[in-house]
Amino acid sequence: MTALSGNQKRKMKSASRLYAVQALFQMEHSGQAADAVRREFLDFRFGAEVGEGEEMIDGDIELFARLLDEAVNWQAKIDQMTDRALVAKWPITRIDPTLRALFRAAGAEMLTQDTPPRVVISEYLDVARAFFPDGKEPKFVNAVLDHMAREAKPEAF
Question: Could you give the number of structural domains in the chain?
């Protein structure tokens, strides 16, 4: 077994964040439990072939599982943080479900991991750009995540 380079580890962590957002979206949309969705992602998505010779990148399984579990465990607190970052007319229940999943994954990482807030914001901005490449959503995500990060880890600012 060969050791992974720092760049490979970073790519795997980035992939895990994307997978966590997808899994949280799927859980909300389908009503499936975290364990069932986790198994599906680990069995069928991590490293799966998506086209002719194209594979999805393997993710950091531990980070993926932690983000999923912590987003579920801390969902009420994360949703409250998100609501405080949104304007009064747009509570979290009114926003796009993909963005809701993104805020929950990012909030879980901000609250329970040692990842610096600026790294969390940058990583989830990349996720937002992947889902909304031509939209205004990444700017919206940046503003909301900045507000959430200042609440979750004020000492970092």
Answer: 1
